Amino acid sequence: METLSLLMEGFAGALTWQNLFWVVLGCFLGTAVGVMPGLGSSMAVALLLPVTFALEPTAAFIMFSGVYFGGLFGDSTMGILMNTPGQASAIASTFEGHKMALNGRAPQALATAAIGAFVGGFIASGVVVFLAPFLAEFSTQFGPAEFFALALFAFMATSSVVTDSAVKGLLSLAFGLGIAVVGIDGVTGIPRFTMDSPFLFDGISLVTVTVAVLALGEVIYFATIARFQREGQMIRSKGRPWLSKKELREAAPAWARGTAIGLPFGVIPAGGSEIPTFLAYGAERKLDRRRHDPQFGKGAIRGLAAPEAAGNSTTGMAMGALLALGLPISATAAIMLAAFRQYGLQPGPLLFERAPDLVWALLASFFIAMIVLLIINLPFAMVWAKLLLIPRHYLYAGITVFCGLGIYATSGSTFDLLLLLGVGIVGFLMRMHDYPLAPLIIGMVLGPLAETSLRDALISANGDASVLVQGPIVLTLYGLLAVVLLLTLRSKITSRTRRDT
Amino acid sequence: MSHASVSESSAPAPRADSERPVDRSSRSAGSLLQALTMPLVLAAFATYLLVGMLMMEVPDSVDFPGPRFFPAIITGVIYVLVVVEVINIFRHWSSGSLGTTDDAAPATFSWRSLVWVIGGFLAFALLLEFLGWILGAALLFWCVARGFGSKRPLFSLIVGLTVSSIAYIAFDMALGLSLPSGLLGGGF
């Protein structure tokens, strides 16, 4: 019951007028960016990251959670209406969701998605509240070897599980790790790869790299290539934006199953909500096959409800894992981690002791964000679609200006702007040649952790490498990693036959 | 943001594949060079790390896994994977399948847009402190809009100035971030 009273204090902290304003603003901004075709929630977070530094930490993180979840809601709206998922995690929802829209059931599809996202996110937030303190306590047993195993898990999972080409994924990861070693070595104090330039002593800022690859690189890509590709027509959504009793009965079990599938993936560093959404979609499809009149392929409400719930429950749990373990499981969570560090806070077990106000207010704001998002998305999805009326060239010009604003405001140097451009160009090349960008971000965030724990473990064991594979937690992690990699291999082989046409 | 690779392979994006010429010179030297850009960039980066490690002065007192240990692993991994990727590319190239797989090589590429966007940003970065935020950001906005094929230069300029001024008011004056006032500094 201690948890409940802490949560109540959190609500008291989050429900001040000021913080309520930030969470609502975050929800609006996140949804707005998510709705834009091709722009996903991680871009929303990356763009807003530098700007939130003007706020005090609690307000900033509350706004962040609004942006993050809002982006997810917006992603699926456009996935359903235009078949352009803004993020990999919204792909599974578009299969049946877009078919529902094509069959004239767009408003019901939007409602199913919004309610599913709400259910998944809300339940996950509830689980996080009770699980996070335990996770935090559990992780106090972690030593260097355990942290190294966790980082390695995240590296392998994000670079090879989620991507099409393992070679490209690993290259992207290694590039991120390489960027992270620039700067003064944390263990010995020796400057590395700085060319004796004082600009590089503190290393290359994660904020700059994130904005460069996720926003500026995307702008260049869109300007030179993507805008010439034909886009799907948007389907207008007319009719009742709510669900009939029959539809609710149909969707409810799928929401529940989706949530259940999504939850465990929030603590497994396997690249976020992409895998669970596909798993949830696949599970519903298998169940559907056993029915008298299979609905899949014709716009099955369950095929939309389950992945939506799974995606948001993973995301919600991922925030818990980030707070309690300091472990980001997706690119967006990695950006949040960077934001925490910018404020001098280190997520992980100690955060619950050092900054309980912030943690509990943030957890409480998840619930508030979910409710706000349901309210602004359920009846008004078509209002959001009006944002598409902004001419493309002004939209992207505005995004570019925003990139420059954020980086200049946080660093105040021309050098960082030039670095932003340079990395942005590399990000554009990666995007053009189908290199995944998430491993780069994860590598940059977790690289220092992996390096220090690897060296600490080896130094304390006098260079004996066997110390890295000792202890139950470490062995479990490596075992789990092996299982995940095998499952990926299997699903990669079967995934080609998974879709209905 | 791995959606680029995934969305296009698992979800059929509505695209005009049929309009694309099939044997679009996928065996030309140009397409090979284009496919090799990323491996080249990565190899250059790994070489930068390698040179940095060779130049680094590490005192003898440092224990075994020193500051070169982790970068050495990364550099090795990048070199090995680059070689694998290059072999892959050459294999596809000689079989003529380079770039024909889904979307590896785009049908259209606008160099003009590339120059406008990158050049615009470069100018913005170098001139920002002299011009000040309002003029600099408006210039950036105008160049990017131009790169996206905007047809009305004067109107774009007005929109750009409006956007940059609003950003200045909201972030510099209201939120307290510091943006340079530059040329217009005397007037504010």
Topology of helices and strands:
The complex is a heterodimer of chains A (501) and B (188).
Chain A: H1 2-14, H2 17-35, H3 41-48, H4 57-82, H5 91-139, H6 144-161, H7 166-180, E1 183-184, E2 191-192, H8 206-224, H9 245-265, H10 274-289, H11 301-325, H12 331-342, H13 349-354, H14 356-377, H15 381-385, H16 392-411, H17 414-432, H18 438-460, H19 472-494
Antiparallel strand pairs in A: 1-2
Helix pairs in contact in A: 1-14, 2-3, 2-4, 2-14, 3-4, 3-8, 3-12, 4-5, 4-12, 4-14, 5-9, 5-11, 5-14, 6-7, 6-18, 6-19, 7-18, 8-16, 8-17, 9-10, 9-11, 10-11, 12-18, 16-17
Chain B: H1 3-10, H2 29-35, H3 37-55, H4 69-94, H5 111-131, H6 133-147, H7 153-174
Helix pairs in contact in B: 3-4, 5-6, 6-7
Commentary on this structure:
Chain A: This is Tripartite tricarboxylate transporter permease. Chain A: Keywords: Membrane, Transmembrane, Transmembrane helix. Chain A: It comes from Kocuria carniphila. The complex is a heterodimer of chains A (about 500) and B (about 190). Chain A is mainly alpha-helical and about 500 residues long. Chain A has a domain at about 1-145 and about 205-415. Chain A is built from 19 helices and two strands. Chain A has a two-stranded antiparallel ribbon with strand order 1-2. In chain A, a hairpin with a 6-residue loop joins strand 1 (about 185) and strand 2. Chain B has about 190 residues and is an all-alpha fold. Mean pLDDT of chain B is about 80; it is low at about 1-25 and about 100-105. Chain B has seven helices and no strands. Chain B has two domains: about 25-105; about 110-185, no CATH class. The chains are: A mainly alpha (about 500), B mainly alpha (about 190). Chains A and B meet through helix 5, helix 7, helix 8, helix 16 and helix 17 of A and helix 1, helix 3, helix 4, helix 5 and helix 6 of B.
Distance between the termini of chain A: 50 Å
* Overall geometry of chain B: flat
| Largest sheet strand order of chain A | 1-2
> What's the story with the biggest beta sheet of chain B?
none
**Pattern of helices and strands of chain A:** HHHHHHHEEHHHHHHHHHHHH
How much helix, percentage-wise, in residues of chain B?
55-70%
InterPro entries (chain A): DUF112_TM
Domain DUF112 (chain A): 20-442
Organism (chain A): Kocuria carniphila
Pfam family, one (chain A): TctA
